[in-house]
Amino acid sequence: MSPIPVCIVLGTRPEAIKLAPVIQQFQACPAFATQVILTGQHREMVAQVMDWFSLESQQDLAIMQAQQTLTDITCRSLQGLQVLFQEYQPRIVIVQGDTTTAFAAALAAFYQQIPVGHVEAGLRTDDLFNPYPEEANRRLISQVAQLHFAPTVQAMDNLRRSGVVGHLHHTGNTVIDALLSVSAQQPDCPVPGLDWNQYRVLLATVHRRENWGEPLQSLGHSFLQILDACPDTAILLPLHRNPQVREPLQAILGDHPRVFLTEPLDYPNLVGAIQRCTLLLTDSGGLQEEAPSLGKPVLVLRETTERPEAVTAGTARLVGTKTETVVTAALELLQDPVAYAAMANAVNPFGDGTASQKILNLVQAFLGVSGAD
Ligand code: UD1
């Protein structure tokens, strides 16, 4: 029997990290002819991850533009994927998460009546505009997917509550597969001028659309106040490539001697930074999953989270973006060892490192491919 064509579509850095172990599983399986398609929503930030995991793409739609709008990303992805799906005739299209690439790829597959497998299905904040546009993207993908790979029991419940059709499976989150494979190698995180032994380092990242503008200003000032209150701390802030994010942060923080602004870190360096830092301040979804697994407290710089498991487990706290609230929460952890110890627990509510193997097995069963592996 000739190998079954499968397309795995990704566009941004978190999709690349979370799909890397899935791609490795599919490419190692002779039953499948796996095509990896990049939309190109991100460029450099995806290339880093592809290189680290030794992944190659078969197609790149190269859609990225400076100041791209959601409409640009959607239209250009839909049109490009239509042509590729007609050419490859995949029996299933696999997408991950809640980006505009994932939504457009799911819709493009649906238009050709190709089944969609959704990795990291079922996350919800139940607030349509938080995060924006991701909450809508993930709900829309759930409506057209036939295979839903939920990372947690709560995500399974969310899917049932949403009335989705198709096959629901609890697999764990593939980010843990990626994280475990990288952290086992004890990666370093060299940052020019930063001596990890000299300071307690706070790892900060900000990029979400709903935090652009005023919230970003407020966060920048909260970081300055934390540094003023704790002279033994430094902040490592890898800047997102988006000028809407990096320019205001550079303006507020660029001159401070204990702020280390860098380009986006390679994935192993990021994991090395999580392992070495004292505390994370972030609006990232992936970091809310990775940091608890490595026993690091996370202050979530958002009003809502679709990852309540880490909050329930006590390792993450939702603090929003108001300067005073962020400063108070950070200082409590930095100045009170008991409060810090209570949050610094290694917990793994998001998976055990076997999600991608389970996803491969489930797709084989769905397509009637006999003999796993
Ligand atoms: C996207 C996702 C978001 C995800 C984030 C991870 C959507 C709507 N948003 O948001 O869910 O959390 O990726 O980073 O899908 N840029 C570069 N080089 C790169 C990547 C980005 O220069 O490699 C710049 C470009 O100017 C681009 C801008 O960043 O226009 C914004 O990129 P975009 O993908 O639209 O938004 P993100 O904020 O990255």
Automatic annotation (TrEMBL):
Organism of origin is Prochlorothrix hollandica PCC 9006 = CALU 1027
Which key words are in the record?
Isomerase
**EC number(s) on record?**
5.1.3.14
**Protein's name according to its UniProt entry:** UDP-N-acetylglucosamine 2-epimerase (non-hydrolyzing)
Starting at the broadest rank, the lineage of the source organism is: Bacteria, Bacillati, Cyanobacteriota, Cyanophyceae, Prochlorotrichales
Q: Does the keyword Chaperone apply?
A: no
**Alphabetized Gene3D superfamilies for the sequence:** Glycogen Phosphorylase B
Describe the family membership recorded for this protein in Swiss-Prot or TrEMBL: Belongs to the UDP-N-acetylglucosamine 2-epimerase family.
One of the entry's Gene Ontology molecular-function terms is: UDP-N-acetylglucosamine 2-epimerase activity
Q: Which PANTHER family match?
A: UDP-N-ACETYLGLUCOSAMINE 2-EPIMERASE
